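Appendix B. Chain record.
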Amino acid sequence: MKKSLVLLMFAGIFTLSFSLSTFAGTLQEEATEADTTEAVTTPPPATPPPATTQEIVAEEEQTFHQAIKEKFIEGGWQFMSVVLACLVFGLAIAIERIITLNLATTNTKKLLAKVDQALETEGVEGAKEVCKNTRGPVASIFTQGLMRMSEGVEMVEKSIIAYGSVEMGRLERGLVWISLFISLAPMLGFMGTVIGMISAFDAIAEAGDISPQLVADGIKVALLTTVGGLIVAVILQLFYNYCVSKIDSLVNQMEDASISLIDLLVKHKLSK
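Structure tokens predicted for this chain:
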């Protein structure tokens, strides 16, 4: 009886272990199939995010610079270099003039108030010191006028008019060179155009046949030099017009301030 129970127990344990091993094997197979199915059905990796706006702008700027460099070389370095030199020198003079003209701007109302106060408290010498310590053509004109105060108001007026012409010439200094580069750049471009057309006809004469490619290459080089010269002229013309308008504003400012100074001196003389 005991042997039968032991045999039945071993048989049950063996059956249970076999069933568990079979169940475990089934689970492992199902897990493997699930992994395989998941691997097959897994969507492809996401595409990388699109380039940011800064990257796109950087690529466009790089492409733009490369295109400019390419067109510069295609236009012929002989004439394009001279046109570029006109742009560089013209911009240098224009920037120097713009800085100088902006520094020459003076607050005339404030200066006239200081001169009036100095005339009342310290006299002409005090007014001279105020003008000498102030920067700009208006203060320089005031200084020249006050130096002739002892000779009368009429001499002060003549001195202001004469020295005003000198200050105007100083303000206009350098503009003639900008005007030269404005005229020179397009002429160099047109000269390159003519030379490019001559080269194109020479190439046609050597080939003995009118090839569209030969004509197109020559015309392309010719037009690139013209475009370069016109671009330089347009840029410099904008700076030139700004400088001229600034000089006109300063001249009007000097004239108004000179009249106000004469009125102050007359009032100061009458008060004495």
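Further analysis of this model is presented in Appendix C.
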